[in-house]
């Protein structure tokens, strides 16, 4: 049986297969609290179109990473983006402004590309500890000069436990 397997797969292919299986098991173990994507109507993100994501924190003794997710087309005309993020815990709201660089100085996009679409997972908070358990909301709004901001495909929020 082993000789048959060796005939079908050489050592390099066997190592690659083992690595891919191990990597898929490791990557499958991430624990995300929320991983949302909201399509932007007509690829035009207006000031009024806030992206609202609610989630529950069941264990506030753990640290969490909070990310802003963005996808845009190659026709997006800026090399950066400004957003306002409103972090709400039911009683209090904390608003922070973020600027993210999306392209190099020569115009090459920094996101991962698939055809004409470029994707980013951009940090808002790392190793963040929620003060209490319960329901939370993150509301994202665009804070650029253009209204609407065109060629934005979809947006989202990712909150995951730190491993």
What do you see in this structure?
With about 160 residues, this protein is mainly beta. It contains 2 helices and 12 strands; from the N terminus they run H-H-E-E-E-E-E-E-E-E-E-E-E-E. The chain has helices at about 1-10, 10-25, and strands at about 30-35, 40, 45, 50-55, 65-75, 80-90, 95-100, 110-115, 115-130, 135-140, 150, 150-160. The longest helix is centred in the first third of the chain and has 17 residues, at about 10-25.
Features:
163 residues, mainly beta, 15% helix, globular
Main beta sheet strand tally, sense and closure: 6 strands, antiparallel
- What fraction, in percent, of the residue positions are helical? 10-25%
Mean pLDDT figure: 87
Radius of gyration based on Cα positions: 20 Å
- What is the string of SSEs from the N terminus onward? HHEEEEEEEEEEEE
What structural category do the secondary elements indicate? mainly beta
Please tally the β strands and state the result: 12
The number of helices is 2
Strand content: over 45%
Give the low-confidence spans. Answer: 14-28
- Tell me the distance between the termini: 39 Å
Gross geometry: globular
